[in-house]
TrEMBL record:
GO cellular component: cytosol
InterPro entries (alphabetical): Citrate_synth-like_lrg_a-sub, Citrate_synth-like_sm_a-sub, Citrate_synthase, Citrate_synthase_AS, Citrate_synthase_sf
Alphabetized UniProt keyword annotations: Transferase
Name listed for the protein in its UniProt record: citrate synthase (unknown stereospecificity)
Transferase recorded as keyword: yes
Pathway the protein contributes to: Carbohydrate metabolism; tricarboxylic acid cycle
EC numbers: 2.3.3.16
MF annotations from Gene Ontology: citrate synthase activity
Methyltransferase is among the record's keywords: no
Lineage, broadest ranks: Bacteria, Bacillati, Actinomycetota, Actinomycetes, Jiangellales
């Protein structure tokens, strides 16, 4: 194959039993199970178990009392650097040198610690740490996460975050998952592989920005007319945030599932969001009959996270927590292949030449 596939689009580099979105049908299944059967119905740690182990038990262990090593003011950076320090701190061996069972247990431990780091970092240094005894009273990993962050979280907020984590836990060969697999393929340790994946979340093209959806919702609340607002945006040639998708040619299945969760939880912005969605879909269909422009995950994720009182500055870190599940599954799957990822590039630089021919030689 000598054709360059820019951005690896369409290249199938891995075989996976974990998940790959059904782009035409608008479905997402974790090891064959539709996400709608899982999100808001099966706790996140058991979804982690399904993705990593292929069964619901035993899932994730509770996180250990371990302080986040760095406080940079950016939660995602604190988590990436904290994870990178786990190998020397815990004496983790390279994935190459451990059994699949050991690798799986290390990934579980790293995942639980990543959530703990996010929670501690989100709480900030102004507030005292939540006592470990209080955290131990929490019911499940997401309740622990929210308790570490807030001390006494509203159970409805815990349920919202749990549903969001499961909805965003895995999405096939996306940039951060690919990154994690590449690093794992070198035989690196579990924490280094996860830390690298976290780094890929820092880019706005992957990390997501549901906050732009909320800005539009706030504007609709202010003017009180979703259709007029939608027409105004489109007349100005601007895009409606939370609609359209690069790969799905049908409704994003995560949007569908999170809409259901938002309704079940009674999210206060459910009605305005629904009015916005209805007006947007009608207007987009009328103006762009040639395109399928449906609701994407960011739209309803914004409503769910807003309901749980998650500040917009935390959205990327919440996405990071969720995706630790998919990363763990893929890192383990990659370790089992034992194969180094090493693609090729088509060279298009200068032909053979003397060093003296290069600018700056003298
Ligand atoms: N609002 C209005 N028009 C839109 C929208 C939108 N949200 N999305 C696409 N269009 C129009 C474009 O203007 C374009 O029109 P043109 O052909 O006249 O130029 C046409 O539909 C196709 O647009 P593309 O950019 O080719 O669509 P693509 O599928 O490549 O882009 C994208 C997908 C970037 C997500 C786009 O739909 C968009 O900008 N949406 C709004 C931002 C958003 O919601 N981002 C979150 C995506 S979900 C995620 O990343 C996990």
């Amino acid at each position: 194959m000598s054709e360059v596939q820019h951005g690896l689009e369409g290249v199938i580099a891995f075989e996976t039993e974990i998940a790959e979105p059904d782009k035409e049908g608008g479905a997402l299944r974790y090891r064959g199970v539709d996400i709608d059967d899982l999100v808001g119905r099966v706790p996140f740690e058991r979804v982690w178990g399904l993705l990593v182990d292929g069964r619901f038990d035993p899932g994730l262990p509770p996180d250990e009392p371990f302080r986040v090593p760095m406080r940079t003011g950016d939660v995602r950076v604190d988590v990436q650097s904290g994870l990178a320090m786990l190998a020397p701190t815990w004496g983790l061996q390279p994935l190459l040198d451990v059994s699949a069972e050991e690798a799986r247990d290390q990934l579980a431990r790293v995942t639980a610690t990543a959530l703990s780091f996010v929670a501690q970092s989100a709480r900030g240094i102004e507030l005292p740490m939540v006592p470990e005894k209080r955290v131990d009273e929490a019911n499940g990993i997401v309740d622990r996460f929210m308790t570490r962050w807030r001390g006494d979280p509203d159970p409805q907020h815990v349920a919202a975050v749990d549903a969001y984590f499961s909805s965003a836990a895995e999405h096939g060969m996306n940039a951060s998952t690919f990154t994690g697999r590449v690093v794992a393929s070198t035989g690196a340790d579990a924490a280094a592989s996860m830390s690298a994946a976290v780094g890929a979340m820092s880019g706005p093209l992957h990390g997501g920005a549901p906050s732009r959806v909320l800005a539009m919702i706030e504007e609709i609340e202010r003017i009180g007319d979703a259709t007029a607002y939608v027409k105004g945006v489109l007349d100005r040639g601007e895009r409606l945030m939370g609609f359209g998708h690069r790969v799905y040619r049908a409704e994003d299945p995560r949007a569908r599932t999170l809409r259901r969760v938002a309704r079940e939880l009674g999210a206060p912005r459910y009605e305005v969001a629904e009015a916005f969605e209805k007006a947007a879909l009608a207007e987009l269909a009328a103006r762009r009959p040639d395109r399928v422009l449906a609701t994407n995950v960011e739209f309803w994720a914004a409503i769910i996270l807003d309901f749980a009182e998650i500040p917009a500055s935390m959205f990327t870190s919440m996405f990071t927590c969720a995706r630790t599940a998919g990363w763990s599954a893929h890192i383990l799957e990659q370790k089992k292949t034992g194969r180094l990822v090493r693609p090729s590039a088509k060279y298009s630089g200068p032909g053979p030449r003397e060093a003296a021919a290069v600018d700056g030689w003298n």
